[in-house]
Design a protein that fits this description.
This protein is of the alpha/beta class and 314 residues long. Helix content is 50%, strand content 13%. It has a six-stranded parallel β-sheet, with helices on both faces. α11 links the parallel β6 and β7.
Length: 314
């Protein structure tokens, strides 16, 4: 450490001044957990004050960031005592990021997800949902929680059918199902959560782009074989007969034959979706696809209602 010969006297003079700001500043550094665990003498504190201040200031700044580290590499430099009792520098992983990463270990169970990474923190068991939830949302959450409860009782438990969830824009269909998907991943299930309109766009782009084509091909394979598949916003995509018959039909047919559950969210009722599929694909192909949707959900639909959170006036 670089010693400052006059620093000890300066700190002692500050400590005995009546200026509360200076005294508060000293107390902040002396009582910070990173400093207290070192059991410093007054002389050690004075001699190493610059390093102590840098260490504590870095930690305080990092504490102000809820989901990120103040340093791009997530490394903090702290003071520790070596085997000889001397104070030395040590580089450590940011404790906050270490905890966050540990809590997000379940993310490896996502074969693919298309939502923003900040939504990975969502869980049905946490208070992420408003108190003014519509009774139908409470019912849906309880339904999902029961599934999680059964999985916790038996890690090898398998459920064969999903659910078709529909309702107006902005009432929390996607938000709630992401929380459920996260909890399933936490229980060890291999999950795919796919925003269908985005996938359809990528499939079309892949016609002239081999890199995109390879990416979408891998996503589709994962969609087929995932323990649980979520298809978000079905009916909003600009699909055509080729999209539906060569991609979505194959995915759902595989899942139907292997009794793998699929959850859908949509702004369309099942009758409205049928109309769209028949219009885009024709009577027979449209109905065949619809039958796969019904088979993977065991003909179960759920109407979610509530206030439009995006545009409350609507």
């Amino acid at each position: 450490m670089n010693e400052k010969p006059d620093l000890f006297k300066i700190l002692k003079s500050i400590e005995h001044q009546d200026n509360p700001d200076n005294q508060d500043q000293l107390d902040l550094y002396k009582t910070h957990p990173l400093v207290e665990r070192l059991h410093l003498t007054e002389e050690e504190f004075a001699k190493n004050f610059i390093a102590i201040k840098r260490m504590v200031d870095e930690q305080l700044a990092c504490d102000d960031l809820p989901n990120n580290c103040i340093n791009a590499n997530s490394i903090h430099t702290i003071l520790v005592r070596n085997e000889n009792g001397r104070l030395v520098y040590k580089a450590i992983e940011c404790p906050k990021m270490k905890m966050i990463n540990k809590n997000l270990e379940y993310v490896k169970n996502y074969l693919y997800y298309s939502f923003a990474p900040e939504y990975l923190k969502l869980s049905l068991s946490k208070k992420y949902f408003d108190d003014d939830n519509h009774p139908s949302k409470i019912q849906l959450i309880q339904r999902f929680l029961q599934t999680i409860k059964e999985l916790r009782k038996n890690k090898n438990a398998k459920f064969e059918h999903g659910l078709y969830i529909f309702g107006p824009y902005g009432i929390g269909k996607t938000y709630t199902t992401i929380a459920f998907a996260n909890d399933l991943a936490r229980e060890g299930k291999k999950v795919v959560f796919c925003f269908l309109p985005l996938l359809v766009m990528d499939i079309k782009e892949g016609i002239n782009n081999e890199q995109v084509k390879a990416k979408t091909s891998k996503i589709i394979q994962n969609m087929k074989k995932a323990d649980v598949l979520f298809l978000d916003d079905i009916g909003a995509e600009k699909g055509n007969n080729w999209i539906y018959s060569e991609h979505l039909f194959i995915v759902l047919n595989y899942r139907m034959e292997h009794k793998l559950p699929t959850f859908f969210t949509s702004n369309l009722s099942i009758e409205q979706l049928k109309t769209k599929l028949v219009t885009n694909c024709g009577q027979i192909p449209g109905n065949r696809l619809l039958q796969r949707i019904l088979a993977t959900t065991n003909n179960k639909t759920f109407k979610l209602e509530g206030i439009n959170k995006r545009y409350p006036s609507k």
